[in-house]
Design brief:
This protein has 736 residues and is an alpha+beta fold. Helix content is 38%, strand content 16%. It has 22 helices and 18 strands. Strand 16 and strand 17 form a beta hairpin. The longest helix has 20 residues. It is elongated and about 90 Å long. One of its GO terms (molecular function) is 1-phosphatidylinositol-3-kinase regulator activity. This is Phosphoinositide 3-kinase regulatory subunit 6 isoform X2. It holds the Pfam family PI3K_1B_p101.
Length: 736
């Protein structure tokens, strides 16, 4: 199809603007990647035939980037290209082949380039044979359209908003946009979109879309949807067939659907087919157990699995004439399940052996088998001690995603919200470890969209280092290691609060998605490379010895202050002579973080007002998974033989830390910058990497069985030791 020179030139300018932003040549373009990408893909809605032009320009720029070794172009352009192919109305065989050859060519590049290229090469292989397959799989999975016994993977998207962090305006805006999207995207409409896209992608202009868009009863639409879906999946599975054979199958279905008299009707141009946004459920995060409860509901919707009895309310059951329960709920039992074997029950000679509706309790052998299956949840390399941060999907054991639903959890907010997520995830993993055979059978994927909260716990000091005032350290780090995340997601940090204050734009266009919802959908669909963050556990010992020690976890920061000292930032105290005398003695015992992973312990005594323990490094050059202890120390122990002038902050890198006050004054602890997570009257505390609950439990069982508390054997030797929180990005970690 011929396109005007002006249209081609406009698309080319948009692509070049994205590349200039990736080069950092223009600060405005660098922060507007998301808007530039959004406008480029919106041109498909205005002119569906422009898909081939966009694909042609993008693949040309990709080939140029590969030749010139400008690798930082490749991943952003690949994501943009695949989204264009998914949304495009029609792509020729030549373009499919050209993109497929390029993806195979860059398989020789290091990770994460080869990982993403392999994923897209597999998608394109199916797309070449079955045009529109990516769109059909995307919409069917996101909207949960399948109704047959061969239920494939289902997606459930949960968006959590903490009302104590997110403003009411932002909460209302997101709730309004998601509800409007759900109302306009009924299952019947989505089925109709899949039918139309499948025909148009395969037949091109030989397909009269207007005839397919006629009003049909919902039952009839579902029947046609199932037939088209069956034909598409059959063609994708069948070996040795090409696009022509698939097109012939769909042409037969198309002829039956529109009638033979209309089958050869000429069509002037390709039509717009909307790509529905995912079904996002918005939840106000007011309860610590809310994440677990929502996952329970997802499991009940998608599977008939047994969940912990404490999570459900057991309904009253009707009785029969003899007072026994009928259709009683399944309960756990240690007996044989045969009525005559139960104590207190007289055996009748004419009674027939019957089994009660209960489930025999599984033993430790089955628990171990389930734990062995759960080993595949760990990222590759996580079972080997290393200080290098892990990223990317596991390739150790082939996964079977089609058998389990996927819960995609979006956290909107700053580091306080992510700290709350880490605590909820730790609680979830503990439940999973205690009941491995009754665990929630679902894949969990986490997404982070940073938004500055309404207020912070302390007012920032303009003289403080930026790292001390940063409230979105996790997302800032992800932006450093993944430029496409920086341009598409981190720009929402200040944009979402501004957009929430604007009046909603009235529109009845089904293809018009609000910007926030569109970017969120793009992130969910193409942010599939996780970056793993170590969760740290803290054991707290109070001055009052009658109190039991407390345990908690944190993700980004632990702030330590002497309780009698004025509340101010650690870095500001040396500049204020009035509070110098209020410093106190703190002893720190630590295990030093070494790249060789050797254990080297140390100890020092500081006279300071407190400390800040951070888990995210200041820069990418020192990206080690360890604790960074910042202090405004006045003196150090003699074994180090060094002194630091007042006003200089020192940093200590450690794998684990123990800290205690040497005076009568106690410590105050604040976790993850959250004023709701504060511990007072603390005498000492211990911080170490949080162990995977399943590993801890299995190790304890092994030690009890062998009677040796230092022995590590059985399955625990092969299990993930550390609890890592995966947060999805577009590329994982790109090493410069």
């Amino acid at each position: 199809m011929e396109h005007s020179e002006a249209e081609v030139d406009m698309i080319h300018q948009k692509v070049r603007a994205i590349l200039r932003g990736l080069d950092g040549q223009h600060p405005a373009l660098q922060s507007d990647h998301g808007m530039l990408r959004w406008t480029l893909h919106k041109s498909l809605d205005r002119n569906p035939a422009s898909g081939s032009v966009i694909v042609g320009i993008l693949i040309k720029e990709l080939e140029k980037a590969e030749r010139s070794d400008t690798l930082h172009y490749i991943i952003p352009l690949l994501h943009t290209l695949m989204y264009t192919i998914t949304k495009a109305a029609y792509i020729s065989d030549e373009l499919y082949e050209r993109v497929y050859v390029f993806c195979k060519k860059i398989l020789t590049l290091p990770k994460p380039y080869c990982t993403i290229a392999l994923d897209y090469a597999n998608r394109l292989k199916a797309e070449k044979k079955v045009p529109g397959f990516s769109y059909q799989k995307l919409v069917t999975t996101e909207q949960n359209l399948r109704r047959d016994a061969l239920q494939q993977q289902q997606d459930k998207v949960l968006l959590f908003l903490d009302p104590n962090i997110i403003s009411e305006a932002v909460c209302n805006t997101l709730l309004r946009e998601t509800q409007a999207s759900q109302i306009s995207q009924t299952p019947v409409k989505c089925m109709s979109y899949v039918i139309t896209n499948s025909f148009q992608a395969a037949l091109g202009q030989d397909c009269n879309v207007r005839l397919l868009q006629q009003d049909l009863p919902p039952e009839e639409v579902e029947l046609w949807f199932q037939e088209v879906l069956s034909a598409v999946e059959h063609s994708a599975r069948e070996n040795g067939i090409g696009r022509q054979k698939h097109s012939q199958r769909l042409r037969e279905i198309y002829g039956k659907m529109v009638g033979t008299s209309e089958e050869e009707a000429p069509v002037s141009k390709l039509q717009v087919i909307p790509c529905p946004s995912p079904d996002i459920r918005v939840h106000l995060w007011t309860n610590e157990d809310q994440l677990w409860k929502e996952l329970v509901l997802i499991t009940k919707e998608t599977q008939n699995t047994d969940i912990e009895a404490e999570s459900f309310r057991i309904p009253e059951l009707p009785m029969d004439g003899e007072g026994t329960e009928q259709n009683r709920i399944s309960v756990w039992s240690n007996d044989s399940g045969i009525e005559r074997d139960l104590p207190g029950v007289e055996e009748k000679e004419s009674a027939k052996l019957q089994r009660k509706p209960c489930i025999k309790k599984k033993g430790p052998d089955l628990d171990s088998a389930v734990l062995l299956q759960n080993l595949t949840k760990a990222p590759k390399g996580s079972r080997v001690g290393t200080l290098q941060r892990l990223s990317g999907q596991s390739t150790e054991v082939p996964a079977e995603p089609e058998k389990l639903p996927t819960a995609r959890i979006i956290i909107l907010g700053d580091d306080r919200a992510l700290g709350k997520l880490a605590k909820a995830y730790y609680s979830y993993r503990k439940r999973e470890a205690r009941r491995p055979h009754r665990t929630l059978k679902a894949h969990l994927q986490f997404y982070c969209i940073p938004v500055r909260g309404e207020s912070t716990d302390t007012s920032p000091d303009k003289d403080d280092p930026p790292i001390m005032n940063e409230v979105c350290e996790i997302s800032t780090y992800l932006g450093r290691v993944d430029p496409w995340y920086e341009g598409n997601i981190n720009t929402l940090r200040d944009m979402i609060p501004k957009l929430s204050l604007m009046p909603p734009w009235p529109t009845s266009d089904a293809t018009s998605d609000p910007f926030i919802l569109d970017v969120t959908s793009y992130y969910l669909r193409f942010g599939i490379q996780p970056v793993y963050f170590q969760i740290y556990s803290i054991k707290i010992f109070f001055r009052d010895t009658s109190l039991e020690p407390g345990e908690d976890v944190f993700l980004t920061e632990l702030k330590v202050e002497l309780q009698d000292c004025p509340i101010s930032k650690v870095s500001t105290l040396p500049r204020k002579k009035a509070v110098t005398d209020s410093r106190g003695g703190i002893q720190i015992h630590y295990t030093k973080a070494l790249a060789s992973n050797r254990e080297k312990e140390g100890s020092l005594v500081l006279r300071t007002s407190g400390a800040v323990i951070k888990t995210i490094p200041r820069n990418e050059a020192k990206d080690l998974v360890c604790l960074n202890v910042y202090t405004d120390e006045l003196t150090r122990s003699s074994q180090f033989g060094t002194r630091h002038a007042p006003g200089n902050m020192s940093v200590l890198r450690a794998c684990s830390v123990q800290m205690r006050s040497l005076e009568i004054r106690t410590l105050t602890l604040q976790l993850d910058k959250d004023s709701r997570r504060v511990y007072t009257n603390v005498a000492r505390f211990e911080v170490s990497p949080c162990q995977e609950p399943g590993y801890s439990l299995q190790k304890l069982r092994t030690q009890r069985a062998h009677g040796d508390p230092n022995e590590e054997g059985g399955l625990s030797r092969y299990m993930t030791k550390s609890l890592l929180l995966p947060i999805n990005t577009f590329a994982g970690i790109i090493h410069g």
